């Protein structure tokens, strides 16, 4: 049995949310677009710990990608996913900002 993703909410407000997320070995994130009720959604994901194998972030279009460790993108506009984590764990600090 594959372990579940564990998400800790560090901050949650109307416009800004910050999460610490643990993705275990064997997990993957299927291609998707995040829905928002109104406004624009921006995400800044900082990869704190990369798995030894797999777990690559794939996005149709990034605003920027800093050496595979920091990604700024629009999850409400562009499809994104994470490949299957073959070995190890993936830790992510995620900042989500909704603007009017």
TrEMBL record:
Superkingdom: Bacteria
Name used for this protein in its record: Uncharacterized protein
Organism: Marinobacter gudaonensis
């Amino acid at each position: 049995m594959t372990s579940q993703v564990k998400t800790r909410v560090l901050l949650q407000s109307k416009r800004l949310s910050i999460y610490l997320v643990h993705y275990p070995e064997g997990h993957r994130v299927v291609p998707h677009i995040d829905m928002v009720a109104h406004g624009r959604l921006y995400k800044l994901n900082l990869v704190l710990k990369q798995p030894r194998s797999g777990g690559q972030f794939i996005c149709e279009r990034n605003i920027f990608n800093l050496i595979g460790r920091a990604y700024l993108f629009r999850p409400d506009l562009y499809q994104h996913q994470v490949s299957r984590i073959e070995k190890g764990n993936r830790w992510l600090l995620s900042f989500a900002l909704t603007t009017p």
